[in-house]
Amino acid sequence: MKTSLLLLSDTELQKKLQRQDQLAFEVLFDRYWKRLYSFAFKIYKEEAICEDIVQEIFITLWEKSINTNIVNLEGYLLRAVKYKVANYIRDLKFDSGHVEILQNIPHPSKTDKHLVYQEFEAGIFMEIKKLPPRSQEVLILSRLEHYTNIEIAQKLGLSVRTVEKHISDALKLLKMKIDPYQFSVFITGMLLQC
User: Fold this and answer.
1) What's the chain's Rg over C-alpha atoms?
2) Considering the entire predicted model, what is its pTM?
3) Do residues 101 and 86 touch, judged by C-beta distance below 8 A?
């Protein structure tokens, strides 16, 4: 049974994990433990502490698996390691060695962040292109070109109520297709551009 789980993607294993599937958890543990430990050890060179930190992260993953939907599990786990190590060091009595370690924690570059955002944006636009043509047109005019509902209605020869319905339906469809966190980022981004 565990052998067949080895072939599953992180997303498929997460779905099983949400149902408290212990074998799926073991596969994820085996898949990521060494990588997380190595990452922790690069930051803080104490084996026992790094082992404890990775163990705590997996315990938290198991305990919160029912209510948590993670988009990129590997990224999530690596960030968790980085923050746990940083918190551990912060709680220690500081000396110059600890300050140096904190300064050397890798941070994503602006280029990395930009690439991640571009990938995220491309995914959103791919989902928008799957919408019915009229809903797609109305959503683009509303959220990307910042037309008011009245302006959209006049431009497309629709009633304001129909425009509102298209926007509502489009957002509902997108919400079903996009991770809730990503969807909220998308909506927030659209609001900030107004």
Assistant:
1) 22
2) 0.49
3) no
